[in-house]
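Here is one such protein, fold included:

. . .
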Amino acid sequence: MKMKRYFLARGLAASALALSVGMVAHGASHREAPMITKMPKVDATDFYMFRSYERGRKDYVTFIANYQPLQAPYGGPNYFTMDENAVYEIHIDNDGDAKEDLSFQFRFSNTLVKNGRHIRVPVGDKKLAVPLRAVGPVSAANTANLGEHETYTLTMKRGHRSRGKSKSLRSASGMTEFTKPLDNVGNKTIPDYDAYANSYIYDFKIPGCKKDGRVFAGQRAEAFAVNLGEIFDLVNLVPLDGESFPGGIMQSRENDDLVGKANVTSLAIEVPTQCITKDDEPVIGAWTTASVYGPTTKGTPAKMQQVSRLSNPLVNEVVIGLPDKDKFNGSKPKHDKQFAKYVTNPTLPFLLDALFRDAVGAEGDIAPSNFPRQDLVTAFLTGFPGFNQPAGVVGSEMMRLNTAVDPTWRNRQHPYGVVAEDLAGFPNGRRPGDDVVDIALRVMMGALCHPVPLGAELGVEGAVEDEESDLINLGLCDPEDAPVGNAPFTDGAPISAAELQNVFPYLNTPLAGSPN
């Protein structure tokens, strides 16, 4: 579907406002709520949704749900298998009612070959099972040295995630069980990890859809760049671009102190756009959840309890207040009105005001004062009319994507997404190379109260520039309400699509345990 000119003209101004949909997206979500710290296997870290920009795949949408944060590449001997008692899901709302219309469910199984006796060695007069998962080189063509296999099933639900019509999905060759590759133990165990992992990318059949989808579940290198350690030590840096503000932090990949040295487990699916949109509505919303079996009482069966939820990055981590973090993780989008107070009166700008008022040379408060923050309510709960707000939308926190916007090829993507006229980027969905940290920091501190500069056209088909002005004044609030709205807030850890793969599943090969 092509974007109509009038649709883009309306949407360009709205898309600048849409920057705030990510709220305070300071990076991947890691250990963001008290209860989830006890269950790292079901801790969602990042969620991506974008029109596929691999050549020949522009008619598809890719979803990537990352789990198990901060995996040390050398995390042996058991590494990072998934929870067999959990259900991991990617939900899609294609009519704006804040309810899932389509869900893809992953369930994992870890199987010891021959009950763990597949690999045994003679020691004295006994033959004993070894303690390691692999005792020699492993490849897709030869897994004889692997003593444990991890597999998963993929199920599609239409309608309600538990009561809806369910269909077990099959690979193009008819398999109902897919293999998750062993984590990247090291170059001696898996000499060619790229070839090994890529052999477990599967085409799968989608009921009622003429084209196949693709799926991959396995370890990947963490794609998100964020100065994580410094940020959570009371933002132990001056969060301003050092090149344009004296005393600020310089942009450097070295500032990606923790996350960039870790791996995650990615659940990636690619589906034809026409099979997930409804009627003439091009906007979809999506999020990921993980659920486990809750406690039981005598005589009653165990029920699934949702314990993790994620769409836009770090909403729960730095927007939702401490008393409600576990509640948010267990909630559904249709109930998000209960968290509105954290959006209308966000606390992060207050904290930054207390920490950095002197650093920016302000005589008074630097936090925006346009309460309630209705601009953020619109962005956070509804999307934006004319751009990524579906008709009849019900307010809810989820990532929204206008699938009518053509993808931007990797070498033309801008890390600032729509603010740089790259309309296929954040917050119109989110790609791995989008720098949501810098975008959201500036928005939270009032960038949208000021005229927004237009970047150069970045090759999005059908895009138009404002011929009358180099600025867009959104009129959301008075510039005086945001005294440092033009300040170049940053965490100093840049990211670029050029650093990532250009093909499904897009995230890079996981860092190897050895050599390191």
The radius of gyration is 23 Å.
